[in-house]
From TrEMBL:
Species per Swiss-Prot/TrEMBL record: Sporomusa malonica
GO molecular function, one term: DNA binding
Family annotation (SMART domains): AAA
Domain Sigma-54 factor interaction positions: 340-570
Pfam families attached to this UniProt entry: AAA_lid_14, Sigma54_activat, WHD_RNase_R
Keyword Transmembrane helix: no
Designated name of the protein: Transcriptional regulator containing PAS, AAA-type ATPase, and DNA-binding Fis domains
Amino acid sequence: MERNTITFITLNDHTLQAIIDNCYELGMMEEFNVEGRTISQLAYLPIADRSLIIVSGEIIIPAIKPYLHENCKIIVAQRTINYTNIREMLEIPRGMKVLLVNDGRERALDTIARIKELGIELDFHPFYPGQTTYPQEITIAVTPGEAKLVPPTIHKVIDIGSRVIDFATWIEIFDHFKYGILDLRRLISRYVHSVVYITKELSDEIQKANLLRNHLGAIVDRIEDGVLAIDEEDKIRITNQKALEILHLQGRKIIHQQAEISIPAHFYQIICQLPYEKEEVMNWESQTFFFRKTNILIDGRNFGYLILFRRASEINKLEHDYRRKQSSKGLVAKYTFSDLTGISAAFTKFTGIARNMARSSSTILLLGETGTGKELLAQAIHNASARRWEPFVGVNFAAISESLLESELFGYEEGAFTGAKKGGHIGLFEQAHKGTIFLDEIGDASAVIQNRLLRVLQEREIMKVGGNRVIPVDIRVVAATNRNLDDMVQAGLFRADLYYRLNVLPVYIPALRDRKDDIPLLVQEFIKKICNELKRPNFRFSREAMDNMLDYRWPGNIRELENIIQYLAHVVEDIVVPEHLVFNRQDKVYQEIPGSKGLELEAVYQSYVGKGFIQEVKLILQTIQQAKSAVGRNYVIGQLKTVGWDMTEQKLRYRMQLLKQDKLLEVGRGRQGSTLTPKGAEFLSYIK
Ligand SMILES: Nc1ncnc2c1ncn2[C@@H]1O[C@H](COP(=O)(O)OP(=O)(O)OP(=O)(O)O)[C@@H](O)[C@H]1O
């Protein structure tokens, strides 16, 4: 039997191509001879005699008439979008604003209507030549084959291809050729086949989405915060086991349910009132919770909000564990501004300045006499800064021997020198990464160390001893000294460029004699603290004794005051009188405070070896022993110089303090001298 011929005539090439492709997809080549022409081809490609003409729009009929036989039948095709191309569109979140771009207003509106018929719920805005504006929040465009008309500012273009012949038109074509019911069935099955294809694709997608959702569920369940995601229609979209446990909803299915009726009423009230993007503390069921509420934004559109919540007690535990871990490494700042005692105007002023400076990340230089509280203040600054959860690392330049200092500060690589630990060593700068490094007694740093410090402060990177890689470090520097750095710079003892790097935000801490108003309060605080430690009743000062305290010059500042209270706690019953005060007495000797445990001489010896001090300690003890009577620090420094050993007063004070702690020395206050204890003499002969 001769096959029927159908000829599609369209205005442009790509519409024709899309229609012919669709004929292949639907298997229409088995039913008909299918031909296609654009209007411009009609002049040189004639149409077969008995062909049925199908035009893509009424508008082109007058233009094609001259090329057609008189009695030929014309069908105006109804066109619809090609289902096989809609998958990408289904991935756009429901309700989102989308630009529908076509080559004319009517065709744009028609395409929108067709898409809507498919049940795709997007908020379409038509766009066609001649239009210049569209809602600026739109980022996605859908177009049936007119991608070239999409405005360039749109991020994503989904081309669903040119529209094809709809089902009703195919029936009209079949009817024209008087096809029977069996043929129609074939047509329907071809159509269904193409729909099944897209359904299968979709079901694959759904399967993938389900898998992803299960994955997501497993991940969200592992989060230790309670999680609730609520969409813009107040439906619960995501939750986790922790949230269900806190809300007593275990075993209940609340996903896709209305939040207002599924969540306990008071909790629901709380989450509705929460501000966005801000940590908030709220009570629920007499427990304190930390909440955070965040908008869920996808491609600029709001899809509801996410709530994360956790019991404050759990956060405190975390903090506690963290602090314990850090403090086992010795990297924690214990003190905060509330641990600083004082009421004087000078105290209020310098603590106020320091508190403000804490907020910035700039270098701070603390200047003040010994014992004025520089280290305490450095810790308080760290704890008031944004870095408070990160390490606080202190380095005392008077306390570490020169030979160890470089590797302590910068670390070393494995094999850097004989005796270097396997795996190398992480230096203090690296340990302080993200936190604060406190450079105490910076005036005591040697020229070599000053040089290397300058490089770290300039470059914010370090190189380990024996290493060749630079390691970036993010640190906040707080430095302190009781020496006059200005004078040291003048005398060429301190690098001017390092001084300027350190002296960014200077804080001057006044001596105790210049803030006498603080003395009674400090006395009170130390009595409370020390008596509590010793489990003894508090004592008090007579008016005369307190007057003496106010008149005294306090060369050792608050440290000295604390030591005096410590001493008094051992010798005073109830009330302190002027005779108790050591600085009033002629002999000026502290009585020994009982209760210390002796250390094994070897252990003491090893501890000094470990600090790199043993040689210096030996010299100091020898010098004091040879003097036969109590000697002051200046005497020791002078004697050490004669044997070629240069030592600053600060360094000597620190070492003598250690010797005193180990009960090897009896160190007097101020200008009182120091003598060896019997244990000190024993130790000296042991190390000799
Ligand atoms: N405002 C204060 N309130 C309570 N205690 C304080 C205060 N200032 C200092 N102290 C105490 O005084 C002692 C000395 O303080 P700190 O070690 O911080 O002084 P410093 O200036 O760093 O001394 P140095 O220069 O000798 O190293 C510490 O025991 C500290 O706890």
